[in-house]
Records
---
Amino acid sequence: MSMNLKVALFGIAREIVGQPTLEMVAPEGQSAQGLLQDLHARYPALARLSSLAVAVNNEYAADDTPLREHDEIALIPPVSGG
Amino acid sequence: MLRLRSAGRSFLLTHLLSSLIHIDLTDQPIDVPTALRSVEADGAGAINTFIGTVRNQSTGRPVVRLEYEAYDSMALHQLRKVAEQAAERWPMLQKVTVVHRKGTLYIGDVAVVVAVSTPHRAESFAACQYIIDTLKQVVTIWKKEFYEDGDVWVAAHP
């Protein structure tokens, strides 16, 4: 079984990927860490950032957080507000 | 009533927190006097404010302008959480306002205002510093610096 994920991109992650959202097919139960590994393989420049977090429904996700098809998922490169 | 916190968040507590916390993310110039007035409270003996402004250089390199990008829904949610954490840590907090700018800013423009009111001054300094420091660590806002000859996403690379 696989699921369709929509991943929102911001800042330098958006520039590296070249678009504001990514549609991805992932295995059922894919973890936040698994998603990051897939993305690092497709976009090696993402792996060179100081940090890259996954957010699920407006909260930072732990590595083992399982992703679900209708979650609001986003990639969070190093923040620099203030 | 704020002690209910430890037993889980009651409806009343949530209501209290939402009335004492004001959060905004705007693409318009921040009205600083309005932000300061928003934390006035009869129980306050101190109002403490942090105003973040755009500096003309970054590690010696002249800056022309900044662009702030936000993941709005998460930034607003995280900003509120930071303010709520401050209210839990300093239960005497009267009111908190945090306003962050997004879009294009030039030298001297106001990027962020944090204002808090407390009965006495020591807690007002501590709470204000906690909020701006934590904001910079967790809130989903990104700053790109533009120079005469290039641009950089701040903090993106080691």
Note: Chain A is about 20% helix and 30% strand.
---
Amino acid sequence: MIKVDKIEKHYGPVQALKGISLDVKEGELFGLIGPDGAGKTTLMRILVTLLFPDKGVATLDGLDVVTEFRKIRRMVGYMPGRFSLYQDLTVEENLNFFATVFGGTVKDNYHLVKDIYGQIEPFRNRPAGKLSGGMKQKLALSCALIHAPKVLILDEPTTGVDAVSRKEFWEMLNNLKRMGITILVSTPYMDEARLCDRVALFQNGEILSIDTPEGITTSFKGRLLGVKVTHTAQRFDCVNQLRSMPGAGSVFSFGDSIHVTCRDEGMTAQSIMSYLAGKGIAGIVAEPVAAGIEDVFMALMQQ
Amino acid sequence: MSTEIKNSQPIIEVRDLVKKFGSFVADDRLTFDVYPGEIFGFLGANGAGKTTAIRMICGLLEPTSGKLKVAGFDGYHEREKIKRNIGYMSQKFSLYEDMTIYENIRLYAGIYGIPRKVRLERTDEMLQKLQLTEHRNSLVGGLPLGWKQKLSFSLALLHDPKIVFLDEPSGGVDPLTRRTFWDLIYEAAHKGVTIFVTTHYMDEAEYCDRVAIMSEGKIVALDTPQRLKEVYEADSMDGVFLKIARNKE
Amino acid sequence: MNQLLGFVKKEFTHIFRDPRTMVILFGIPIIQLMLFGYVITTEIKDARIAILDHSNDNVTREITEKLLSSGYFKLDANLRSETEIEPLFRKGDIKQVVVFERDFAQRLEREGVVSMQVLADASDPNTAQMLYNYTNGIVQDYIRKKFSSITIPLQIKSEVRMLYNENMVGAFMYVPGTMALILMLISAMMTSITIAREKEMGTMEILLVSPLKAKHIVFGKVAPYLLLSIIDASVVVLLGNLVFGVPIRGSIVVLAFLVILYITMALSLGILISTVADSQQVAMFISGFALMLPTILLSGFIYPIENMPVPLQVLSNLMPPRWFIDALKQVMLKGNGLEYIWPNVLILSGMTLVFLLLSIKKFKLRLQ
């Protein structure tokens, strides 16, 4: 559905995209994962015909983003990085406006937004500026959907939104996917990668890896040991001690444990525990752990 | 939290703290203590009342009722003194993008009245630690996000505050930068600075000594991440957060 | 068509829901008109003057009589010698001294030329200029009536402005100027700000990605302000007429045509500004400094163009309000029709066209 072939884009001397290629299949939920400034927004803007690529070709449903931009604009639903709603218009007025802009009415495609819009409909007379972050997000998604697009392109829809709203939002995306809509979504939260069918890991205008979330985590080459700290005050000491432990690679906190990559064979959970005990840190449990998306991302970044 | 910390005097004391805007109760009888050197996480959905609470504790807003003591100063009458004893770093970093790293440091030092000699010493020390010495004359606007973040945090610490407030400090950076940033936070806490942090990254909640979760103006849970996970029978803070939200409904 | 109507409707909602916009649209025009009409008015009443009459004949007495009965002047003192003048000025009691030379009436009759000295307190140059104009006007008027058979050039040059504004009423000068200013404010500034706001809020991104064409977006933005500007212009003309008695001597149709032409010009200028301004602040800055100040200073609104240094006079030709104010005065005060103001109309149309073409060229359907 979306084809990106060796796209390059410069802003003056800065190369925002360094020859990106990817394919998104029809009905897929595809994630662009990476920090701010990685080039996610630039790629999305090229796909929604807001920017010209310097080099390379991109098509949506076979339509070229440069020459056939008018046709693309009819079939794509776009949610820019900021919640682009009219703060002074009410919830209902916003939705009506975006429906008319695309030459339709809310009634035409109400079935598409029913589940999402239904949650904020009780507040339909409230100005959009007075909604909570989660509700704004739902309204923005409704507005992007109201003209029944084939493809949804969502630029960091969950940034700055609390964990609960984020979870709900991903559930909504999965429902939309089931209706056959192709979705391209970007996020800086690595843990959201596992909610996508496939993801591309972005960094500095390049794609580090494209695969299913499982494919990405199983591609982790090294060996990883997790050190569980029982209370936080230990963490600072543990991290510092482990960093000077021979054979330890990178040492970083991951949730309630510390992940240590092993540089040599001799390093085991047992050897870590006895090393720490020797440094006066007792009662620590270490065990081999499977890599997460972030482990892979960090490993790829350091290559 | 180690027992040693708990036995000391709290640095932030909040008792039945209420803030109303007209008839709207933004914060409803908040009660908690934060101890010196503690990393205290403050979580909650947007609009749960976090920002209002932080503004009161920082001395930016006067509470409606309740008791508030920060670094030994009263939250009603000594707000100026509170401001002088805290550091603040927000998501937006509050750096002047059109000024160099060095000029930003000098400006902050000036604002807090740090004497010239101390300032020069600390500037060198800080630039060295951040490995920015050779970039001291670069404009801040052109720096990578991760650098800005570290610089911003170091500036918040420049005047030796007793408490530093971090408002979603790590949004949008890559996982490596995010972790090296937390290394800085740990180091500061280790030196005895109290850290008060809000975040939307649930794994970061695990890095805190204690976590308070707010919902609709109230603190609905407050404990160590470990205990919270036990009580809510969840294997991560993400799970705790979701369970609390569900219980509410 | 529905798309466009929906857009215009949205635009009106923005306007009516924002108290600040409403104040700018309807409060400011009225306040400004009143300010310029009443407060900043340079109209003079009972200015204290002194007379030094070396001749004291029937002509000088009659002129003095005319001056004092005009209502503009009030006699402070009759002086005997030049030495008394300075102390009087220093005390700040008087604004002007009129000096008649010896044998005034005789010389006037014999030589046809006589000089009358007008000394004015130039610490307030505008008032001084005005007082001088009044005095001059009254004297000219007196001579024209009294010696209607022969032309006697008094050695005081006359100001062209007085010819069509015999009473020298301040509001007459300010109503056309205020109109130019207000229409510029509403049309150019408000449109540029409202377009810049869409960019700032990120909503422009969605509009661009929608099937809306550039002309839809532009027309949708402009139409409400066109309508509101026309309403404002009518209010200003009406208030000017009812409150200050500013006449509308020319045809209403020509007046309406002129006003709409000017509004169109200002709107295209507003769109042009918005194509370069990415934020409301920049839009406000450009329209404030690049439009408001020249409108006030260089259009002949407050400072007569004839009194400007030559480079500024040349520059003033580039200011659209200059041509509008001039044409407006002709239509309203002189009753002139298109046969007189066609050069102004041509110039304004040309400017509109240039602004429109530039805007269309610069308005992009993409970012960057």
Note: Strands of chain B lie at 12-21, 24-34, 39-44, 65-70, 73-74, 86-90, 163-167, 194-198, 210-215, 218-223.
---
Amino acid sequence: MSNTAPLGLLVLSAVRHAASYLPVFDAHPDTVIRAIVEESDAPEWAHNDARILAERYHVPVLRDPDAALIRGDIDLVLVCSEPTRHARLATQALQAGKHVLVDKPMAVTLDECKMVAEVASRSSGCKFTVVHRLFGAPIQRARQAIDAGHLGLIRSGDVEFLSSGVFFGTSVERPEFVANPALSGGGELMNFMVYPVDYLHYLTGARVTEVFAEAGTFFFDAHKQFGVEDVGILSLRLEHDIIGSLTVGRIPFAPTPGTGASTLRLIGSHGHLTVDENRPQLDIWSTVTERRGRTIGGESAHGTIATEIGAFIRDICEDRAPLYGVRDAWATIAAIEAAYRSLVTGQPARVAALPAR
Amino acid sequence: MTLAIAIIGAGSIARDHVAAYARIPGVRVSHIVDTDAIRAQSLAAQAGNATWSTDAQSALAAPDVSAVDICTPSETHAALTIAAAERGKAIHVEKPAALSLADYDAMVAATGRHGVSLMVGQTARFQPVNREIAQEIAAGTIGRLRLLHLAWYAGDVWAGGWRAWQLDPARSGGHPLHNGIHALDLAVWLFGRAPTRVFTRGFRAFAPTMGIPDSFHMTVRFHDGSLALLEIAYALRQRGDTLRRILAVGEAGSLSHSTEDDPHLYSDGVHLPSPSIEDAIYHQLRHWVATLRGEETPIVTTAQVRHALAAALAAQESLETGRAVTVGEADNE
């Protein structure tokens, strides 16, 4: 893609999803993984994670982010810590003049969003994006239908985004990452609500302006232990008086053979459409495997991150604005923040508006 | 012995009831009453030359009538039910049973006082998919139910256009009461628990001047914290289009169904109901008749209907105020 040297990648904390993101960078012709750095005062398990991945990719493990970030052979930083460190580490990388991809959620408070946004606006040469799932083929297909006018004006959207708890031990290597607020910043609304809110904004063009939330802790010991929700239902108002509804969280069995179910239904003035990120699906009935089906074209969740990383590298090389920027992440986290306020008051909460650019 | 039933009201639902009774052995529609004589006469002819009238009292007084099926606009349900009870008739009343809890309580009290039965036509319980979901929940397949998500979408508008009484909230009670009661009753039945808090948001799909939103969703919290998200939309563009989806999540598993997976007829201008939801009114009225004969135990209890009604009234208040509303009158299980 580029005639210049490959982009040097620094992994700034390598816990949680880093193991699934790094193969994409490793395989990409325009990036080279240079090193993994973890903060010296990070917990031992974080250093262990860094060490394991460093051995896998034959790169050094560093313990001084400041020193690592000033290296001239580092162009791009992947921030992949637990969520409560995302904003601070992303800010640090931007201030060092690096391009940044940060795992979701970008931040866990609105103050953190403001901080990242201010630094990003001063770092105009740096590309910045956050892990999202908007490149998933089903979402792109829906957006194309909407852009073609097939739905007319969208009036309502419903998203069901549910992860299967039977995979709790394998899809999230440590349940505390989503249940311990000191690491996660909240419960499953903080963990998962970014995706459905992103979908609704991306597909409708409208921001969420008001949220009413109900949540419960029904299914998992980790969530009960830390007193956070494992599932929630939400009523949204979006601009243009579009109404939205969400069912979000982790349940014992999401209604899909895969690890999680993500479906949405949009009703427009001139048509409606349904999206299922696990369909079309090939049904499997076999004595050889316990798998009951496979998504035709691959699971959206897996394909979308590779597409996003590829697009972000191209954004950097060709000086394009990423599909999803700091203000998109901020607006989504503002909706999540309103959801948590609604849970406290038992009433709908206005979403804090972003300041004008 | 043939059961003679008087139907009060000769609108579109009454027509469906007449068609259902024709399939139930030992049942005869003996009277049709409507304030519109032509409509009463027409439906009476379809019912096999039933006696028609514009005066409900004449049918209620008929000695050969042992049961009354009330299919009139909602604001008349209470008075007609009480009048039928006073005549000693068994009563089936269309949903919503009443426009207020006070009216509903008076209906239940009157039927109790006169020793007659009262069944409210909560049709969703009789849709095949919902009956089977209830059976699986009762069998313990998914453990204790904690989360329910219903999406009921249709391309629809009420018969009568701008004359439709359903568009007048004073007559229908608003859409959360008129149709939301179906979803709320189903939720109350499946959970077996009382709603405590409701929030509603809606929109008017086809005309901003509609008296009620034709599309809305409700969040429902039950007394043990369990949750339901209930969506009802008439906003699909094509009349007759249907999308119905249900997800029930328990502590040990989930049940889900979508009409997208049902076999369908594809033919110009014809929309048949999905097999998973078809024939509910027949099943509902067949069950009512069976309860009157002592052959089946009533599955629609007046206590559960009251919980659903209280929640629907709270949902309408939420729609009007934009606030979450505590279901004040709801009793715990």
Note: The domain at 124-326 of chain B is CATH 3.30.360.10 (Dihydrodipicolinate Reductase; domain 2).
